[in-house]
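worker-3 :: picked C4-dicarboxylate ABC transporter permease
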Amino acid sequence: MIDALLSALPLVFEPANLFAVLLGTVAGLVVGALPGLTVTTGIAVLIPLTFGLDPLFALGMMAGMYNGGSYGGAIPAILLRVPGTPASVATILDGYEMTKQGKAAYALQVAVVSGVIGSVLSAISLIIFAPGLVKLSLLFGPAEYFWVAILGLATVASLLGDDFLKGLIATVIGLLIGTIGTDISSGTERYTFGLLEFADGLDIVVLLSALFAIPPVLMMIEEALKTGMPGDLLKLKRQGSVLADWRRYLPIWMRSSVIGIIIGVLPGAGGSMSCYLAYNDAKRASRQPETFGKGNPEGVAASEAGNGADNAASLIPALTLGIPGSGVAAVILGGLLVHGLRPGPQLFAEHPDVVYGFMVQMLLSAVMLAVVGGLTATRIFGQALRLPRVVLAPVIMLFVTVGVYAVNNTMFDLYTLLGIGLVAYMLDKLDYPNAPIILGVILGPIAESQLLLAMTISGGDPMALVSSPMSMIMIALTLFVLATPLWTVWKQRRRSSVEPAK
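worker-3 :: tokens ->
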């Protein structure tokens, strides 16, 4: 391993390959920051353009776009309450609240530093622990993945939002939306109402835009403010330094990075789940959990560190077993095949300079992100808040509309965007959290498919769901997560009933 790593370093630091990583990082920032575009889409478009190029040059651009897009999604999430990527939804909860408090620059600073730390630790784990960590993923079968999805649903439903019941209702709404489409077991259509456009379910980009972009646009129109945020509030130097407060964030960075790495290693479980679990872990460990969702920078730090740590870790099962840990990793697998590189143990034996070079490029792109994202992108995108809201609202709507239409090039998606957006606006007014809805849409199909697979393998025996130690651990964690808010409510009621007696 050491010899292969040393032989790959000179190739990585060739000027052309360094430029590839830088170019990919900048492109990833732009792709992540544009609502409607995802890192998966960006890399999918990039792969055909790299055909015929040197493999390490092409992989360097993919590595840069992966890490750059991961942070890029946090920019519109913090500034505009519009998630650039699905994994940046949790960043909205505190990031946008900080923006409303005039702390947008500091929130972006927290996001980029946290994302870089998570990405660096994830890349180091990819380089050092790839063979060992992949053994962990082998312990998870369909039953275990089912309980992982249930744990994710339970965690978000109980810890996001001030009302436990509303959190559960929002999660159920997401699960119901996730059932729209063709049943994977029988092939029959469910809740499509005879519309062919619903046969594959609702597109995730349309849902994200409808749930998180339309409501704030309508609120901006409702407020009709004709003045933007003063430029003084957007200067980084006047809002403190994240690195100066490192003692406050260090425990969060470490725990969130570990969560992101573990989730990334599990094939199919990566992406949005890591940032949610990291966010909820930070809230659970905080001495002031009630401040989360109201502008606590620790929420931004946890979400972005977990999100960044998922990146390189999701490539561990992809490179060693050919099993992608996330959608982006699946596209990168396609990129490897395009360049004649077959994922699996033989990849390390036949092309050690390329595979270890790619690992180093993941680390290098994370370091570049600190410079490009922290010094350039933050300052440029931060100026968006200086636009008056009556101007900003139609600009956001324009970007969202173009992004949604570009997904499938159909007007039906725009009609769906408007319909769901109006419902989401009403839910916002009624204080229902939107984040559990989107996670229900993401995790619901995962739980359903893994449950059906587990039942098929076991011949319909329900005991297969609780037959392994890992399943029992996941069930215990799920019960603990659900019991925590109920215990808190019970203590508050008991305290309130005792106080008058004094």
